[in-house]
Specification:
The chain is of the alpha/beta class. The protein has one domain: UDP-N-acetylmuramoyl-L-alanine:D-glutamate ligase (3-Layer(aba) Sandwich), CATH 3.40.1190.20. It contains twelve helices and 14 strands. The strands form two sheets. The chain has a nine-stranded mixed β-sheet, sandwiched between helices. A five-stranded mixed β-sheet has the order 3-8-7-2-4. A hairpin with a 5-residue loop joins strand 7 (about 115-120) and strand 8. It is globular.
Length: about 325
């Protein structure tokens, strides 16, 4: 097996986040699911955009956010995702390449347009996301660069993208390519609604050993295992996955590997401004430690540091000097 050229290659939704602060009452008035992520159609996307206050446009997408954190830490990364030949597609491509991440997926001509996520942020930092998947759900298996997948230490997959048929087929093909090359596959469950729709697929992949590293939060763990009790869910799932990582919001995070349990508290934050991307950046810090051969406990701490940085400002991508924060934390 040849030495990998990149640390992490990810497949995910190529989305531009449109973010705006809002009052709590607007969440109810618009009939939104507070703190959740809802898939919306074109008509609903237009209606919600009209209801937003002044907004910021920031390239996003769960797996792309994770890569942005990894690249900021110094990892070598590549991204596979579908944009359209439109303005937001150009914005996404520019932003991800400007972050030092390889992105070579050809843009898709015509409709639908590039995906966007309309995010309403309340005063407590909670984000309510409404996602129009647009072009991102039409990533065909033929768009995969299998040579690049075989050339990365880790293939990282975003659960959100499992929903549409074309990218689901693409990710299955990517898993096969990674496994044939002896690489690791990391998977993030993304949201409880994804598990409601595709939990059987995910459980089958876990049982057959297709997933080497599984990321979840405590809500997703309960949805996947059927156990509301955190420790019971952890005990059931951990023996089936070589490395299980579960975030618990303000309670920190837990990892299980080789029958051993590791845990860290959440890093202190002066003010929680926006929780968008907390899980994505936690995964970035953890994976960075993992590809650098750090101990599991250190990987958890790296994840917590990165998550704390991203929730201290608007947007799901880091703004501070992550290597400096990490150096200070481990000094």
């Amino acid at each position: 097996m040849s030495a990998p050229r990149t640390d992490v290659i990810a497949i995910g939704n190529a989305i531009v986040d449109v973010m705006a602060p809002c009052e709590d009452g607007l969440i109810d008035a618009l009939g939104l699911v507070r703190g959740g992520m809802t898939l919306i159609d074109t008509e609903r996307a237009h209606a919600l955009y009209d209801a937003m206050g002044p907004a910021r446009e920031i390239s996003g997408g769960s797996a792309a956010n994770t890569l942005a954190g990894l690249a900021a830490l110094g990892a070598r990364c590549a991204f596979i995702g579908q944009v359209a030949e439109d303005q937001l597609g150009e914005v996404f491509a520019h932003d991800i390449r400007a972050g030092g991440i390889e992105f070579a997926t050809p843009a898709r001509p015509g409709d639908p347009p590039t995906a966007r996520c309309l995010i309403f942020v309340t005063s407590d930092g909670q984000r309510t996301m409404n996602t129009f998947l647009g072009a991102s759900q039409f990533l065909p298996p033929e768009a995969l660069d299998e040579a690049a997948i075989r050339d990365a230490k880790i293939l990282y997959l975003e659960g959100y993208l499992w929903d549409p048929e074309e990218p689901r087929a693409a990710m299955r093909r990517a898993i096969a390519a990674a496994k044939e090359a002896g690489r690791k596959v990391a998977f993030t469950l993304s949201d409880a609604f994804v598990i409601e729709r595709h939990g059987a697929d995910f459980r089958a992949m876990i049982e057959t050993g297709e997933i080497d590293i599984l990321f979840a939060n405590h809500v997703e763990l309960a949805a996947l295992t059927g156990h509301d009790d955190f420790d019971r869910g952890l005990a059931e799932l951990a023996p089936k996955v070589p490395l299980l990582v579960v975030t618990r919001s303000e309670k920190g995070a837990v990892a299980m590997a080789g029958g051993e349990r590791f845990a860290v508290p959440a890093e202190p934050v002066e003010q929680v401004v926006d929780t968008t991307g907390a899980g994505d950046l936690f995964a970035a810090g953890f994976l960075f430690g993992h590809v650098r051969g750090r101990a599991v406990q250190d990987c958890l701490t790296l994840g917590a540091v990165c998550a704390a940085e991203v929730i201290s400002h608007y947007g799901a991508r880091p703004e501070a000097d992550l290597p400096a924060l990490v150096a200070a934390r481990f000094s």
